[in-house]
Amino acid sequence: MSKEVISDKQAATLVTVFLIGSTLILGTAAQAENDMWISIILGVIITIPIYLIYSRILSLFPEKDIFEISEQVLGKLMGKAMGLLHIWFAFHLGALVLRNYGEFINVLALTATPIIMPMAMFIFICIWGVKLGIEVLGRWAELFALVLFGLLIIFAFLVIPEMKLENIIPVLYNGIAPVIDGAFSAFAFPFGEAVVFLSVFGSLKNSKSAYKVYFSGLLISGVTIMYVLIRNVAVLGSNQLKLLYFPSYAAIARIDIGTFLQRLEIVVAIIFLIAVFIKICICLLAACIGITKIFKLKDYRKIVTPIGLLMLNLSYLVYDSTMEMFDWVTNFWLYYAFPFQVILPIIIWIACEWQSRKTKTKMS
Amino acid sequence: MINIIINIIVIISAYILIGVIEWYPMLKKKENGIFVYGFLFLGSFVISLLLGMKIKVPNPAKGIEAILSMLLGWR
User: Fold this and answer.
1) What is the extent of the structural domain holding B34?
2) Counting C-beta atoms within 10 Å of the first and last residue's C-beta, which end of chain A has fewer, N or C?
3) A340, A86 Cβ separation under 8 angstroms
4) Residue A355 resides in a domain
5) Distance separating alpha carbons of residues A339 and A54, to the nearest angstrom
């Protein structure tokens, strides 16, 4: 089978849309209340060294994914163990994002429909998307990113009359501790989640692409998330924001221009669908590529359907209620994701550096 | 009870449909990966069936919660 290759622009768009993903609708760094935007800036700064590590791993072994790299540098057994952990993280993340989508639809639109139905319909579209391959997903993301950012820019203007800038001040009223807490939350969700791309970016064009792709994705998504959080705080105020599961939806619902431009929150749902589709597809793709490499299969497309169905099952049973979902995201995700987002990549990076120095010494 | 029966019928029909469309041609051609596909597909089918029958399936999130709570000394 011929190798799939995506352009740097497509890859950067995939990273951007993936990072914006569920954050657009769920928000992040809730601990920081009206100082969320500072948390995002700090979160981006914390993420920079980690993205340098991700990019370095990919640039040391161009055209290889994390499964091949870890087997090469850590040996067969340890490499496969690392691979299994990466597969689990991608699979679990995909299931959680699918559940976020299910809860969003179930709470706000189809309240009488069993949650499994919208999730099942959506996973079938994602399975279809993944079967078409990363090249198609890249092109799709490139096209729909225009729609996503276009709508965000239009909303940026429409929501201005509802914004009260006094909701954002006073800055640092509760001290720096909640802001730092929020920065770590923002790192774990969403910025650190881009570790999943280590499994997918064997299809980048050249060895230096990873730096460009990761950092442009981080910059654009950081600015977008910061804008969305500032908008939500300015429109709703931090007290109301704490009470809402889906603040962006509530913020956009306030738009009422000339009594005819109103009820625009459905467009938020469209933005969310675009972003979440890419996020679930990338997670599913990463899990499928991993299983293909571990079991030495020829084509990942053959196993997309059963993995997608397993993802659907996990997303259905993982939480009992919306409250539990938010409790898990707020209290457990940061600690659970840390080893996958930071510790494992650091171990692999150290092994990669050691291996590449050994090879250089042998050659000289 | 009627809900559970409907669930079971829907789940079995959906999996038969997917199996006929995807797995059967793979089996016929003896393609690489049929056993991995079969294992994952049957695993998924069993979990779906158990969930459809409202039988409690072990939730990995609870296990992760318990381990994290123990490590962090939360409870």
Assistant:
1) 2-72
2) C
3) yes
4) no
5) 14
Does any CB of chain A come closer than 8 Å to the CB of residue B59?
yes
Q: Report the DSSP pairing between strands A256-257 and A261-262.
A: antiparallel
Which residue among B22, B36, B43 places its CB closest to the CB of A305? B22
Please name the member of B31, B44, B71 whose beta carbon is closest to the beta carbon of A306: B44
Residue A157 located in a structural domain: yes
Q: How many domains does chain A have?
A: 1
Among residues A162, A176, A299, A334, the alpha carbon closest in space to that of A240 is found at A162
How many domains is chain B built from? Answer: 1
Residue-range definition of the domain harbouring residue A327: 8-350
Q: What is the pLDDT along chain A (364 residues), one digit of tens a residue?
A: 557 888 889 999 999 999 998 888 888 877 888 888 899 999 999 999 999 999 999 998 888 889 999 999 998 899 999 999 999 999 999 999 999 999 999 988 888 899 999 999 999 999 999 999 999 999 999 999 999 899 889 888 888 888 888 888 888 888 889 899 899 989 998 899 999 999 998 878 877 888 999 999 999 999 999 999 998 899 888 888 888 888 888 888 888 887 777 788 888 888 888 889 999 999 999 999 999 999 888 888 889 999 999 999 999 999 888 888 888 888 888 899 999 999 999 999 999 999 888 888 877 7
Chain B residues in contact with A291 (beta carbon < 8 A): 36, 40
**Considering only CA atoms, which of A219, A193, A214, A218 is closest in space to residue A204?**
A214
Residue A364 in any domain: the answer is no
Token pair for A194: 């881009």
- Asked whether the beta carbons of residue A317 and residue B59 sit closer than 8 angstroms, the reply is yes
- The first and second tokens of residue A331, run together, are 């209290």
- Cα A21 from Cα A25, distance rounded (Å): 8
Nearest residue of B to residue A95 by CA position?
Answer: B61
Which of B32, B37, B61 minimises the CB distance to A319? B61
Q: Tell whether A3 is covered by a domain.
A: no
Residue of B nearest to A334 (CA): B68
Whether the ω angle into residue A62 lies within 30 degrees of 0, i.e. cis, is no
- First-to-last C-alpha distance (Å) of chain B: 38
Report ipTM (2 d.p.). 0.94
Question: Mutate which of A305, A326, A330 to test chain B, going by most B C-beta atoms within 10 A?
Answer: A305
Please list every residue in chain B whose beta carbon sits closer than 8 Å to the beta carbon of residue A310: 40, 43-44, 47
Token pair 């189809």 is found at A110
Q: Enter the tokens of residue A346.
A: 């650091």
